[in-house]
Protein backbone atom coordinates (compact mmCIF):
# COMPACT_ATOMS: atom_id res chain seq x y z
CA UNK A 1 0.00 0.00 0.00
CA UNK A 2 2.90 2.34 0.56
CA UNK A 3 4.73 1.24 -2.58
CA UNK A 4 6.00 4.33 -4.34
CA UNK A 5 5.44 6.68 -1.40
CA UNK A 6 8.36 8.98 -0.72
CA UNK A 7 9.35 11.67 1.72
CA UNK A 8 8.65 15.33 0.97
CA UNK A 9 11.26 17.22 -1.11
CA UNK A 10 12.29 19.55 1.71
CA UNK A 11 11.96 19.59 5.49
CA UNK A 12 12.50 21.95 8.41
CA UNK A 13 12.82 21.45 12.14
CA UNK A 14 9.56 21.48 14.09
CA UNK A 15 11.33 22.21 17.37
CA UNK A 16 9.32 19.38 18.97
CA UNK A 17 10.99 16.22 20.30
CA UNK A 18 8.04 13.98 19.38
CA UNK A 19 7.71 15.36 15.86
CA UNK A 20 11.22 16.00 14.53
CA UNK A 21 11.21 17.55 11.07
CA UNK A 22 8.11 18.51 9.09
CA UNK A 23 7.60 19.41 5.42
CA UNK A 24 8.97 22.86 4.69
CA UNK A 25 5.57 24.32 3.76
CA UNK A 26 3.74 23.01 6.87
CA UNK A 27 3.26 25.21 9.92
CA UNK A 28 3.16 24.58 13.66
CA UNK A 29 0.08 26.10 15.32
CA UNK A 30 -0.98 26.15 18.95
CA UNK A 31 -4.32 24.48 19.62
CA UNK A 32 -5.62 27.73 21.15
CA UNK A 33 -5.27 29.38 17.74
CA UNK A 34 -7.19 26.55 16.05
CA UNK A 35 -9.90 25.66 18.58
CA UNK A 36 -12.20 27.27 21.11
CA UNK A 37 -13.75 25.61 24.15
CA UNK A 38 -17.46 24.80 23.93
CA UNK A 39 -19.61 24.23 27.01
CA UNK A 40 -23.26 23.90 26.04
CA UNK A 41 -25.48 21.84 28.36
CA UNK A 42 -28.48 19.65 27.58
CA UNK A 43 -31.80 21.06 28.76
CA UNK A 44 -33.72 17.78 28.34
CA UNK A 45 -31.07 15.05 28.66
CA UNK A 46 -32.79 13.22 25.79
CA UNK A 47 -30.06 13.53 23.15
CA UNK A 48 -27.99 10.54 22.01
CA UNK A 49 -25.69 9.36 24.81
CA UNK A 50 -22.09 9.25 23.55
CA UNK A 51 -18.86 7.85 24.93
CA UNK A 52 -15.18 7.87 23.97
CA UNK A 53 -13.48 4.66 22.93
CA UNK A 54 -9.69 4.54 22.90
CA UNK A 55 -9.98 2.34 19.81
CA UNK A 56 -12.47 4.35 17.75
CA UNK A 57 -12.97 7.77 19.29
CA UNK A 58 -16.46 9.18 19.89
CA UNK A 59 -19.21 6.56 19.48
CA UNK A 60 -22.81 6.13 20.64
CA UNK A 61 -22.98 4.35 24.00
CA UNK A 62 -25.63 1.97 22.59
CA UNK A 63 -23.08 0.68 20.04
CA UNK A 64 -20.82 -0.57 22.84
CA UNK A 65 -21.23 -3.33 25.38
CA UNK A 66 -19.91 -1.20 28.21
CA UNK A 67 -22.05 -1.29 31.32
CA UNK A 68 -21.78 1.73 33.60
CA UNK A 69 -23.98 3.22 36.27
CA UNK A 70 -26.94 4.86 34.60
CA UNK A 71 -27.70 8.39 35.69
CA UNK A 72 -31.24 9.22 36.78
CA UNK A 73 -31.15 12.22 34.48
CA UNK A 74 -28.77 13.54 31.83
CA UNK A 75 -30.03 17.11 32.11
CA UNK A 76 -27.01 19.37 32.42
CA UNK A 77 -24.65 17.03 30.58
CA UNK A 78 -22.43 18.56 27.94
CA UNK A 79 -23.44 18.60 24.28
CA UNK A 80 -21.24 18.06 21.26
CA UNK A 81 -21.87 18.26 17.51
CA UNK A 82 -20.32 16.62 14.43
CA UNK A 83 -16.87 18.08 13.90
CA UNK A 84 -16.25 18.83 17.57
CA UNK A 85 -13.12 17.43 19.17
CA UNK A 86 -14.09 15.58 22.37
CA UNK A 87 -11.49 14.72 25.01
CA UNK A 88 -11.91 12.61 28.12
CA UNK A 89 -9.65 14.69 30.33
CA UNK A 90 -8.64 11.70 32.50
CA UNK A 91 -7.84 9.38 29.59
CA UNK A 92 -6.42 11.69 26.92
CA UNK A 93 -3.01 10.09 27.40
CA UNK A 94 -4.55 6.68 26.49
CA UNK A 95 -6.22 7.90 23.25
CA UNK A 96 -9.42 8.85 25.01
CA UNK A 97 -10.26 11.52 22.46
CA UNK A 98 -11.51 12.01 18.92
CA UNK A 99 -13.51 14.20 16.56
CA UNK A 100 -17.21 13.37 16.85
CA UNK A 101 -19.41 12.38 13.91
CA UNK A 102 -22.48 12.60 16.13
CA UNK A 103 -24.63 15.11 17.98
CA UNK A 104 -25.28 14.02 21.52
CA UNK A 105 -24.58 14.30 25.23
CA UNK A 106 -21.33 13.44 26.96
CA UNK A 107 -20.00 13.42 30.50
CA UNK A 108 -19.33 16.80 32.12
CA UNK A 109 -15.77 15.51 32.72
CA UNK A 110 -15.12 15.71 28.98
CA UNK A 111 -13.76 18.70 27.11
CA UNK A 112 -15.35 19.88 23.85
CA UNK A 113 -13.36 21.95 21.35
CA UNK A 114 -14.61 23.48 18.12
CA UNK A 115 -12.51 24.69 15.19
CA UNK A 116 -12.43 28.47 14.99
CA UNK A 117 -14.29 29.72 11.92
CA UNK A 118 -11.23 31.37 10.37
CA UNK A 119 -9.30 28.08 10.30
CA UNK A 120 -9.69 25.60 7.49
CA UNK A 121 -9.17 22.26 9.20
CA UNK A 122 -10.31 18.89 7.95
CA UNK A 123 -12.11 17.14 10.84
CA UNK A 124 -10.85 13.68 9.86
CA UNK A 125 -7.26 14.94 9.59
CA UNK A 126 -7.48 16.41 13.10
CA UNK A 127 -9.03 13.16 14.38
CA UNK A 128 -6.13 11.07 13.06
CA UNK A 129 -3.48 13.58 14.16
CA UNK A 130 -4.56 13.92 17.80
CA UNK A 131 -4.95 10.13 18.10
CA UNK A 132 -1.63 9.32 16.44
CA UNK A 133 1.15 7.64 18.41
CA UNK A 134 3.56 10.62 18.13
CA UNK A 135 1.01 13.13 19.46
CA UNK A 136 0.30 10.91 22.48
CA UNK A 137 3.72 11.96 23.78
CA UNK A 138 2.48 15.57 23.88
CA UNK A 139 -0.75 14.53 25.62
CA UNK A 140 1.11 12.51 28.26
CA UNK A 141 3.48 15.37 29.04
CA UNK A 142 0.59 17.84 29.34
CA UNK A 143 -1.56 15.54 31.52
CA UNK A 144 -0.80 16.00 35.21
CA UNK A 145 -1.45 13.89 38.26
CA UNK A 146 -0.01 11.49 40.84
CA UNK A 147 -1.28 8.25 39.29
CA UNK A 148 -0.56 7.45 35.65
CA UNK A 149 -4.07 6.03 35.29
CA UNK A 150 -5.57 9.31 36.53
CA UNK A 151 -3.50 11.91 34.75
CA UNK A 152 -5.72 14.86 33.83
CA UNK A 153 -5.55 17.11 30.78
CA UNK A 154 -7.00 20.55 31.48
CA UNK A 155 -8.43 22.89 28.83
CA UNK A 156 -5.46 25.20 29.29
CA UNK A 157 -2.96 22.37 28.85
CA UNK A 158 -4.56 21.07 25.67
CA UNK A 159 -4.96 24.51 24.13
CA UNK A 160 -1.23 25.04 24.62
CA UNK A 161 -0.44 21.98 22.49
CA UNK A 162 1.47 22.49 19.23
CA UNK A 163 0.06 20.75 16.14
CA UNK A 164 1.55 20.36 12.64
CA UNK A 165 -0.85 21.80 10.06
CA UNK A 166 -0.52 21.23 6.29
CA UNK A 167 -2.41 23.37 3.74
CA UNK A 168 -6.16 22.69 3.50
CA UNK A 169 -5.96 20.92 0.12
CA UNK A 170 -3.20 18.70 1.44
CA UNK A 171 -5.27 17.75 4.48
CA UNK A 172 -8.00 16.64 2.07
CA UNK A 173 -5.52 14.54 0.09
CA UNK A 174 -4.20 12.91 3.26
CA UNK A 175 -7.72 12.04 4.38
CA UNK A 176 -8.58 10.64 0.94
CA UNK A 177 -5.50 8.41 1.00
CA UNK A 178 -6.08 7.20 4.57
CA UNK A 179 -9.75 6.45 3.84
CA UNK A 180 -8.70 4.30 0.88
CA UNK A 181 -6.12 2.39 2.91
CA UNK A 182 -8.52 2.02 5.80
CA UNK A 183 -11.22 0.46 3.63
CA UNK A 184 -8.78 -2.05 2.16
CA UNK A 185 -7.44 -3.06 5.56
CA UNK A 186 -10.87 -3.41 7.12
CA UNK A 187 -12.19 -5.54 4.25
CA UNK A 188 -9.27 -7.88 4.72
CA UNK A 189 -9.79 -7.91 8.48
CA UNK A 190 -13.48 -8.72 8.09
CA UNK A 191 -12.55 -11.69 5.89
CA UNK A 192 -10.12 -12.93 8.55
CA UNK A 193 -12.73 -12.43 11.26
CA UNK A 194 -15.20 -14.56 9.33
CA UNK A 195 -12.56 -17.28 9.04
CA UNK A 196 -11.93 -17.14 12.79
CA UNK A 197 -15.67 -17.37 13.43
CA UNK A 198 -15.99 -20.47 11.23
CA UNK A 199 -13.00 -22.09 12.92
CA UNK A 200 -14.52 -21.36 16.33
CA UNK A 201 -17.85 -22.90 15.30
CA UNK A 202 -16.05 -26.04 14.18
CA UNK A 203 -14.04 -26.10 17.40
CA UNK A 204 -17.19 -25.71 19.49
CA UNK A 205 -18.91 -28.57 17.71
CA UNK A 206 -15.97 -30.92 18.34
CA UNK A 207 -15.69 -29.96 22.01
CA UNK A 208 -19.43 -30.19 22.64
CA UNK A 209 -19.64 -33.67 21.16
CA UNK A 210 -16.67 -34.91 23.20
CA UNK A 211 -17.74 -33.51 26.59
CA UNK A 212 -21.39 -34.55 26.28
CA UNK A 213 -21.16 -37.90 24.42
CA UNK A 214 -17.57 -39.06 24.90
CA UNK A 215 -15.45 -40.86 22.29
CA UNK A 216 -17.35 -44.16 21.95
CA UNK A 217 -20.21 -43.76 19.40
CA UNK A 218 -21.79 -47.04 20.56
CA UNK A 219 -21.99 -46.11 24.25
CA UNK A 220 -25.37 -46.49 25.95
CA UNK A 221 -27.06 -43.15 26.65
CA UNK A 222 -29.42 -41.84 29.31
CA UNK A 223 -31.45 -38.61 29.69
CA UNK A 224 -29.36 -35.90 31.33
CA UNK A 225 -32.51 -34.28 32.77
CA UNK A 226 -31.05 -30.97 31.59
CA UNK A 227 -33.25 -29.50 28.86
CA UNK A 228 -30.46 -27.99 26.76
CA UNK A 229 -28.08 -30.93 27.10
CA UNK A 230 -30.07 -33.95 25.96
CA UNK A 231 -28.66 -37.45 26.46
CA UNK A 232 -25.27 -38.36 27.95
CA UNK A 233 -23.39 -41.66 28.40
CA UNK A 234 -25.15 -43.90 30.91
CA UNK A 235 -22.11 -44.21 33.21
CA UNK A 236 -21.45 -40.44 33.40
CA UNK A 237 -22.59 -38.33 36.37
CA UNK A 238 -24.39 -35.00 36.27
CA UNK A 239 -22.58 -32.77 38.77
CA UNK A 240 -22.78 -29.14 39.82
CA UNK A 241 -19.53 -27.20 39.75
CA UNK A 242 -19.62 -26.64 43.51
CA UNK A 243 -19.16 -30.40 44.03
CA UNK A 244 -16.07 -30.43 41.78
CA UNK A 245 -14.06 -27.61 43.34
CA UNK A 246 -12.10 -27.15 46.53
CA UNK A 247 -12.65 -23.41 46.37
CA UNK A 248 -13.24 -20.50 43.98
CA UNK A 249 -11.01 -17.47 44.54
CA UNK A 250 -11.61 -13.88 43.47
CA UNK A 251 -9.11 -11.03 43.31
CA UNK A 252 -9.11 -7.33 44.12
CA UNK A 253 -9.52 -4.07 42.24
CA UNK A 254 -6.47 -1.94 43.06
CA UNK A 255 -5.37 1.33 41.50
CA UNK A 256 -2.99 0.36 38.69
CA UNK A 257 -1.16 1.84 35.70
CA UNK A 258 -1.95 0.79 32.15
CA UNK A 259 1.56 -0.55 31.54
CA UNK A 260 3.02 -4.04 31.73
CA UNK A 261 4.82 -5.10 34.89
CA UNK A 262 8.62 -5.13 34.78
CA UNK A 263 11.26 -7.13 36.62
CA UNK A 264 10.71 -5.22 39.84
CA UNK A 265 6.92 -4.93 39.84
CA UNK A 266 3.70 -6.91 39.93
CA UNK A 267 0.65 -6.77 37.68
CA UNK A 268 -3.08 -7.30 38.17
CA UNK A 269 -4.97 -9.27 35.53
CA UNK A 270 -7.55 -7.57 33.31
CA UNK A 271 -10.92 -9.06 32.39
CA UNK A 272 -9.71 -9.96 28.90
CA UNK A 273 -6.90 -12.25 30.07
CA UNK A 274 -8.88 -15.40 29.15
CA UNK A 275 -10.95 -14.23 26.17
CA UNK A 276 -11.95 -17.06 23.81
CA UNK A 277 -10.45 -19.74 26.05
CA UNK A 278 -6.82 -18.61 25.76
CA UNK A 279 -4.80 -17.16 28.64
CA UNK A 280 -3.01 -13.94 27.65
CA UNK A 281 -0.68 -12.87 30.43
CA UNK A 282 0.09 -9.50 28.83
CA UNK A 283 -3.52 -8.52 29.56
CA UNK A 284 -2.65 -6.96 32.90
CA UNK A 285 -1.88 -3.58 34.49
CA UNK A 286 1.17 -2.70 36.53
CA UNK A 287 0.68 -2.28 40.27
CA UNK A 288 2.38 0.53 42.21
CA UNK A 289 5.61 -0.38 44.00
CA UNK A 290 4.08 0.06 47.47
CA UNK A 291 1.11 -2.27 46.85
CA UNK A 292 0.95 -5.14 49.35
CA UNK A 293 0.68 -8.51 47.61
CA UNK A 294 -1.79 -11.02 49.08
CA UNK A 295 -0.25 -14.47 48.49
CA UNK A 296 -3.69 -16.10 48.33
CA UNK A 297 -4.50 -14.34 45.03
CA UNK A 298 -1.13 -14.73 43.31
CA UNK A 299 -1.54 -16.34 39.87
CA UNK A 300 0.31 -19.62 39.40
CA UNK A 301 1.08 -21.89 36.48
CA UNK A 302 -1.78 -24.36 36.00
CA UNK A 303 -4.51 -22.07 37.41
CA UNK A 304 -7.93 -22.24 35.73
CA UNK A 305 -9.29 -18.71 35.36
CA UNK A 306 -12.84 -17.54 34.64
CA UNK A 307 -13.82 -14.05 33.50
CA UNK A 308 -16.44 -12.80 35.99
CA UNK A 309 -17.23 -9.47 34.31
CA UNK A 310 -16.44 -7.99 30.93
CA UNK A 311 -17.48 -5.19 28.61
CA UNK A 312 -18.96 -7.72 26.19
CA UNK A 313 -21.56 -10.32 27.28
CA UNK A 314 -20.09 -12.73 24.73
CA UNK A 315 -16.86 -12.78 26.73
CA UNK A 316 -18.29 -13.05 30.25
CA UNK A 317 -17.50 -16.50 31.61
CA UNK A 318 -14.51 -17.07 29.30
CA UNK A 319 -12.28 -19.79 30.72
CA UNK A 320 -8.59 -20.52 30.21
CA UNK A 321 -5.70 -22.27 31.94
CA UNK A 322 -2.34 -20.65 32.72
CA UNK A 323 0.27 -22.66 30.77
CA UNK A 324 3.27 -20.61 31.86
CA UNK A 325 4.12 -17.23 33.38
CA UNK A 326 6.70 -14.60 32.53
CA UNK A 327 5.17 -11.95 34.83
CA UNK A 328 4.31 -11.79 38.52
CA UNK A 329 0.53 -11.40 38.59
CA UNK A 330 -2.44 -11.34 40.95
CA UNK A 331 -6.15 -11.93 40.35
CA UNK A 332 -8.42 -8.95 39.83
CA UNK A 333 -11.98 -8.71 41.09
CA UNK A 334 -13.10 -9.48 37.53
CA UNK A 335 -11.46 -12.91 37.55
CA UNK A 336 -12.42 -16.13 39.35
CA UNK A 337 -9.91 -18.93 39.94
CA UNK A 338 -11.37 -22.43 40.24
CA UNK A 339 -9.32 -24.95 42.23
CA UNK A 340 -10.65 -28.41 41.30
CA UNK A 341 -10.66 -31.47 43.53
CA UNK A 342 -9.04 -34.81 42.66
CA UNK A 343 -12.21 -36.17 41.00
CA UNK A 344 -11.72 -34.12 37.85
CA UNK A 345 -8.94 -33.39 35.36
CA UNK A 346 -8.53 -29.57 35.19
CA UNK A 347 -7.89 -29.61 31.42
CA UNK A 348 -11.08 -31.61 30.88
CA UNK A 349 -13.00 -28.96 32.83
CA UNK A 350 -11.44 -26.20 30.73
CA UNK A 351 -12.78 -27.92 27.61
CA UNK A 352 -16.18 -28.48 29.26
CA UNK A 353 -16.28 -24.80 30.25
CA UNK A 354 -15.61 -23.82 26.63
CA UNK A 355 -18.57 -25.82 25.31
CA UNK A 356 -21.97 -24.65 24.05
CA UNK A 357 -23.59 -26.32 27.08
CA UNK A 358 -21.55 -24.10 29.41
CA UNK A 359 -22.20 -20.94 27.34
CA UNK A 360 -25.95 -21.48 27.57
CA UNK A 361 -25.69 -21.55 31.35
CA UNK A 362 -23.56 -18.38 31.36
CA UNK A 363 -26.04 -16.53 29.15
CA UNK A 364 -28.91 -17.47 31.45
CA UNK A 365 -26.95 -16.41 34.53
CA UNK A 366 -25.95 -12.97 33.26
CA UNK A 367 -29.44 -12.15 32.00
CA UNK A 368 -31.17 -13.29 35.20
CA UNK A 369 -32.35 -11.22 38.13
CA UNK A 370 -29.46 -12.10 40.44
CA UNK A 371 -26.62 -10.32 38.73
CA UNK A 372 -25.99 -7.16 36.77
CA UNK A 373 -25.65 -7.35 33.00
CA UNK A 374 -22.24 -8.63 31.88
CA UNK A 375 -21.56 -9.98 35.38
CA UNK A 376 -21.41 -13.66 36.32
CA UNK A 377 -22.52 -14.18 39.95
CA UNK A 378 -20.42 -16.64 41.96
CA UNK A 379 -23.52 -18.46 43.16
CA UNK A 380 -24.61 -19.04 39.55
CA UNK A 381 -21.17 -20.32 38.55
CA UNK A 382 -21.15 -22.77 41.46
CA UNK A 383 -24.57 -24.09 40.38
CA UNK A 384 -23.58 -24.83 36.75
CA UNK A 385 -24.14 -28.46 35.72
CA UNK A 386 -21.60 -30.63 33.86
CA UNK A 387 -21.56 -34.18 32.53
CA UNK A 388 -18.62 -35.85 34.26
CA UNK A 389 -17.10 -39.14 33.05
CA UNK A 390 -14.71 -41.27 35.15
CA UNK A 391 -11.28 -39.70 35.64
CA UNK A 392 -9.49 -41.98 33.16
CA UNK A 393 -12.05 -41.17 30.48
CA UNK A 394 -11.66 -37.45 31.21
CA UNK A 395 -7.95 -37.81 30.51
CA UNK A 396 -8.61 -39.71 27.27
CA UNK A 397 -11.06 -37.05 26.07
CA UNK A 398 -8.59 -34.32 26.98
CA UNK A 399 -5.83 -36.01 24.96
CA UNK A 400 -8.18 -36.50 21.99
CA UNK A 401 -9.29 -32.85 21.99
CA UNK A 402 -5.73 -31.54 22.22
CA UNK A 403 -4.78 -33.53 19.13
CA UNK A 404 -8.03 -32.90 17.26
CA UNK A 405 -8.05 -29.14 17.80
CA UNK A 406 -4.36 -28.50 17.18
CA UNK A 407 -4.69 -27.41 13.56
CA UNK A 408 -7.86 -25.40 14.17
CA UNK A 409 -6.23 -23.51 17.05
CA UNK A 410 -3.10 -22.82 14.99
CA UNK A 411 -5.14 -21.51 12.04
CA UNK A 412 -7.19 -19.19 14.26
CA UNK A 413 -4.06 -17.91 16.03
CA UNK A 414 -2.41 -17.24 12.67
CA UNK A 415 -5.43 -15.24 11.48
CA UNK A 416 -5.47 -13.24 14.72
CA UNK A 417 -1.76 -12.43 14.34
CA UNK A 418 -2.37 -11.25 10.78
CA UNK A 419 -5.16 -8.96 11.98
CA UNK A 420 -2.93 -7.57 14.74
CA UNK A 421 -0.10 -6.93 12.28
CA UNK A 422 -2.45 -5.15 9.88
CA UNK A 423 -3.65 -2.79 12.59
CA UNK A 424 -0.07 -2.17 13.72
CA UNK A 425 0.77 -1.33 10.11
CA UNK A 426 -2.25 0.97 9.90
CA UNK A 427 -1.23 2.77 13.10
CA UNK A 428 2.32 3.27 11.85
CA UNK A 429 1.18 4.45 8.42
CA UNK A 430 -1.23 7.00 9.87
CA UNK A 431 1.50 8.36 12.15
CA UNK A 432 3.92 8.77 9.24
CA UNK A 433 1.34 10.45 7.00
CA UNK A 434 -0.21 12.94 9.46
CA UNK A 435 3.23 14.05 10.69
CA UNK A 436 4.59 14.57 7.19
CA UNK A 437 7.06 11.70 7.03
CA UNK A 438 5.43 10.35 3.86
CA UNK A 439 4.05 12.39 0.96
CA UNK A 440 0.73 10.96 -0.24
CA UNK A 441 -0.42 13.81 -2.49
CA UNK A 442 0.30 12.04 -5.81
CA UNK A 443 -1.01 8.72 -4.54
CA UNK A 444 -4.27 10.36 -3.39
CA UNK A 445 -4.71 12.06 -6.76
CA UNK A 446 -4.47 8.70 -8.57
CA UNK A 447 -7.10 6.98 -6.43
CA UNK A 448 -10.43 6.08 -8.06
CA UNK A 449 -13.66 7.45 -6.67
CA UNK A 450 -15.08 4.91 -4.20
CA UNK A 451 -18.67 4.64 -3.10
CA UNK A 452 -18.99 3.52 0.51
CA UNK A 453 -22.11 1.39 0.85
CA UNK A 454 -24.31 1.63 3.93
CA UNK A 455 -23.38 -1.93 4.88
CA UNK A 456 -19.64 -1.35 4.93
CA UNK A 457 -17.63 -4.61 5.02
CA UNK A 458 -16.29 -3.61 8.41
CA UNK A 459 -18.42 -1.70 10.88
CA UNK A 460 -16.22 -0.15 13.53
CA UNK A 461 -18.96 -0.08 16.13
CA UNK A 462 -19.62 -3.79 15.64
CA UNK A 463 -16.05 -4.46 16.72
CA UNK A 464 -16.72 -2.71 20.01
CA UNK A 465 -18.53 -5.81 21.24
CA UNK A 466 -15.14 -7.35 21.95
CA UNK A 467 -13.81 -4.51 24.03
CA UNK A 468 -13.21 -4.94 27.71
CA UNK A 469 -13.91 -1.54 29.17
CA UNK A 470 -10.65 -0.91 31.07
CA UNK A 471 -9.45 1.24 29.33
CA UNK A 472 -10.17 -0.16 25.84
CA UNK A 473 -13.47 1.64 26.11
CA UNK A 474 -12.69 4.80 27.99
CA UNK A 475 -15.59 5.96 30.11
CA UNK A 476 -15.95 7.54 33.51
CA UNK A 477 -18.70 6.59 35.96
CA UNK A 478 -21.65 8.87 35.34
CA UNK A 479 -22.07 11.64 37.85
Task: Briefly say what this structure is.
This protein is an alpha+beta fold and 479 residues long. It has helices at 31-34, 123-130, 133-142, 155-159, 168-213, 346-352, 356-367, 378-383, 391-434, 441-446, 460-463, and strands spanning 11-13, 21-23, 27-30, 35-37, 50-53, 57-60, 78-80, 85-88, 97-99, 104-106, 110-115, 162-165, 221-223, 231-233, 237-240, 245-250, 267-269, 284-286, 304-307, 319-321, 329-330, 335-340, 385-388, 473-474. The chain is elongated.
Apparent shape? elongated
- Return the average pLDDT rounded to an integer: 88
Number of strands: 24
The fraction of residues assigned to DSSP E strands is: 15-25%
Give the helix tally. Answer: 11
Overall structural class, as computed from helix and strand content, comes to alpha+beta
Main sheet? 4 strands, antiparallel
Order the strands across the largest sheet as they lie in space: 4-11-8-9
Overall number of domains? 2
Rg from C-alpha positions? 25 Å
* Helical percentage: 25-40%
The second-level CATH architecture of the largest domain is Alpha-Beta Complex
CATH topology of the largest domain, by name, is Adenine-n6-DNA-methyltransferase TaqI, Chain A, domain 2
Amino acid sequence: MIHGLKAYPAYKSSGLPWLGTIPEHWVIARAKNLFRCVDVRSETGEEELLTVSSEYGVVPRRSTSVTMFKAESYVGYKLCWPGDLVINSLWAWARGLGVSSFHGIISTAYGVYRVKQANHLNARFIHELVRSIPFLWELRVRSKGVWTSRLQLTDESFLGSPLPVPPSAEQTAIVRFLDHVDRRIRRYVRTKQKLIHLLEEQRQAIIHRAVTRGLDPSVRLKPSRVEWLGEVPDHWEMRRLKSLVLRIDQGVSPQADNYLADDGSWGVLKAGCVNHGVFREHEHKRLPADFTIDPTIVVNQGDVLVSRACGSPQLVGSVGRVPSLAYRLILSDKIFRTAFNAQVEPDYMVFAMNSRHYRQQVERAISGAEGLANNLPLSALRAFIFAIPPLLEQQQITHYLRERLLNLTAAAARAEREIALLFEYRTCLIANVVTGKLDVREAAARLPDEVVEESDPFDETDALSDTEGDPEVVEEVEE
